[in-house]
Amino acid sequence: MEKKRGGGSCVPSLRALRCYAVMFGLCLGLPSSAASPCKRKPVIFNFGDSNSDTGGWSAGLGIDVALPNGRTFFHEATGRLCDGRLTIDFLCESLNTSFLSPYLESLGPNFSDGANFAVSGAATTPRDQPFSLGVQLRQFLLFRSRSPLLLSRGHANLVGEDGFADALYTIDIGQNDLAAQFRTLPYLQVIGNIPTFIEEIRFAIWSIYQSGGKNFWVHNTGPLGCLPSILVAAAHDASDIDELGCLRSRNDAAREFNRRLQSLCEELRSQMKNATIVYVDVFAIKYDLIANYTLHGFENPSKACYNNGTVCEESSRHVSWDGIHYTEAANSFVASRILSANYSTPPIIFNFFCNV
């Protein structure tokens, strides 16, 4: 993905939250289209990397992300580095809202439900390098300042003033920071640089809060050491392999990143009046999927479906799509666990922001 502290918003009791989950039909599977109603129009602004990029990298750099990417659900390439839907897509579906248009998309975007600033390859640092979290933040602030004005002039498919205040701001970034560091630096130096990454996330959340945002949904980073591409490319010895066959050093770094990210969320709750910050333990969800893949209906998670130009026949049994990114089936699993609220701190259900 802690209780609210200090000046943060009040959090319902765990018993009440469980009652809400029953009311809204949440369960271990994805909810039906009618299971997660919103009292008002849901608006989402997403920031991150390829784990939640719905086409920003493709649009921004003019790169055609060709089939077999997109083959499972869309039956065409959509700019997603996946065979189908991403976790963010399933989260949007749970609210009966449309998939998020990439901010960089110039061909027929619809921003009335929010916008996706995530771009594949993005990291928190360096702040000014396209398309880092800092650049995504600046893009949002420009979008924030211009949208109400353009709406007043008759432009459509944008977000109004109330939409920004009531929106959910989702953040899923950090994997590329760790991966890039390990290419040139030893473990201890990587660990020593993690506070810099966390400070960039702090800056982004605080800046959005100062612009009027009050609802934040923060995903931690997944088990980097279990990605098939990392297992193949990273130099290591037997002592660095854990009980699941993953690289211990990469996963330990991810855990340290997540520990500091959770601490940041705790700290910001005490400082940001009337704000709600939900920390989601995606690492635990993905690690459980890898550790118990047979139980969850998958095959060997260290084997990618799409590898060196060849593609498997049935991607629904694979965890990894291309060695770095998850398949639609795995993303569906991750989304279902997120929607259960069992991995969220505090344990608030995903549609809280459009029902308060």
Automatic annotation (TrEMBL):
Molecular functions per Gene Ontology: hydrolase activity
Pfam families per the UniProt record, alphabetical: Lipase_GDSL
Keyword Nuclease appears in the UniProt entry: no
CDD domains per UniProt: SGNH_plant_lipase_like
Keywords: Glycoprotein, Hydrolase, Signal
Signal peptide: 1-35
This protein's record includes keyword Signal: yes
Family the entry assigns: Belongs to the 'GDSL' lipolytic enzyme family.
Protein name as it appears in the record: GDSL esterase/lipase
